[in-house]
């Protein structure tokens, strides 16, 4: 698949829209140091108002301001979906004690009540059937997830965390991967599904296929191993 910059922070849609509140970055520094912060994305619709990743704790005030600019308070967020447990992705979880919280494969609500799910078995966690679901996409870490939003104006948007560092990330992602083979397989599945990908440390990008138009969300079919099977 070819890719191209999206050149927009928001993908409108009905019933769900996707807006990048903060574009992530990653910068190698001398001495083996790395400076990074994660992309923070808002998924908004009639039943679900979800934040995908929260950025690092150093960005607490900035995140609150970004939500306020969208007319939201922390208590308006119904779900916080952290693609994995690294500090630049989960740093502001404590702003949302009333939300349903997902970190990797761990799902909880309220004061430490953990809920069953089938992500570790390779099956999605569905927030709203046909529109919003969490997909297991292991590799960067073992319990890594991405969030698929279907039916937007551009088709299916996948907020992919560190499955993709950025557009045209070459082999950079491999050096940061716990299991490159599994991550490469998950990357291929997401590219087969998505019309737009929101990576963990860069700007969103479109996925272009010759002779293919519209939403490919219907491709969520059962696959052995780390495949996905939609269900309510």
UniProtKB/TrEMBL annotation:
<dbReference type="InterPro" id="IPR001279">
    <property type="entry name" value="Metallo-B-lactamas"/>
</dbReference>
<dbReference type="Pfam" id="PF00753">
    <property type="entry name" value="Lactamase_B"/>
</dbReference>
<feature type="domain" description="Metallo-beta-lactamase">
    <location>
        <begin position="37"/>
        <end position="201"/>
    </location>
</feature>
<comment type="subunit">
    <text>Homodimer.</text>
</comment>
<comment type="similarity">
    <text>Belongs to the metallo-beta-lactamase superfamily. Glyoxalase II family.</text>
</comment>
<dbReference type="InterPro" id="IPR039344">
    <property type="entry name" value="MBLAC1"/>
</dbReference>
<dbReference type="GO" id="GO:0005829">
    <property type="term" value="C:cytosol"/>
</dbReference>
<comment type="function">
    <text>Endoribonuclease that catalyzes the hydrolysis of histone-coding pre-mRNA 3'-end. Involved in histone pre-mRNA processing during the S-phase of the cell cycle, which is required for entering/progressing through S-phase. Cleaves histone pre-mRNA at a major and a minor cleavage site after the 5'-ACCCA-3' and the 5'-ACCCACA-3' sequence, respectively, and located downstream of the stem-loop. May require the presence of the HDE element located at the histone pre-RNA 3'-end to avoid non-specific cleavage.</text>
</comment>
<dbReference type="InterPro" id="IPR036866">
    <property type="entry name" value="RibonucZ/Hydroxyglut_hydro"/>
</dbReference>
<protein>
    <recommendedName>
        <fullName>Metallo-beta-lactamase domain-containing protein 1</fullName>
    </recommendedName>
</protein>
């Amino acid at each position: 698949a070819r890719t191209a910059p999206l050149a927009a922070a928001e993908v409108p849609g009905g019933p769900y829209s996707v807006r990048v509140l903060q574009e992530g970055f990653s910068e190698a520094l001398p001495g083996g140091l790395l400076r990074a912060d994660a992309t923070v994305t808002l998924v908004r619709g009639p039943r679900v108002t979800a934040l995908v990743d929260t950025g690092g704790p150093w960005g607490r005030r900035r995140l609150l301001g970004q939500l306020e600019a969208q007319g939201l308070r922390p208590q308006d967020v119904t779900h916080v979906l952290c693609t994995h447990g690294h500090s630049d992705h989960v740093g502001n979880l404590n702003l949302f004690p009333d939300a349903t919280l997902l970190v990797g494969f761990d799902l909880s609500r309220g004061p430490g009540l953990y809920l069953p799910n089938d992500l570790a078995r390779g099956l999605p966690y569905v927030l709203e059937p046909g529109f919003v679901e969490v997909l297991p996409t292991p590799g960067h870490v073992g319990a890594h997830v991405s969030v698929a939003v279907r039916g937007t104006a551009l088709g299916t948007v996948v907020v992919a965390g560190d499955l993709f560092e950025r557009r045209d990330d070459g082999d950079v992602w491999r050096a940061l991967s716990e299991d490159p083979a599994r991550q490469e397989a998950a990357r291929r599945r997401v590219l087969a599904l998505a019309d737009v990908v929101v990576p963990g440390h860069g700007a969103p990008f479109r996925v272009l296929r010759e002779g293919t138009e519209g939403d490919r969300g219907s491709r969520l079919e059962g696959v052995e191993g780390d495949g996905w099977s939609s269900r309510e």
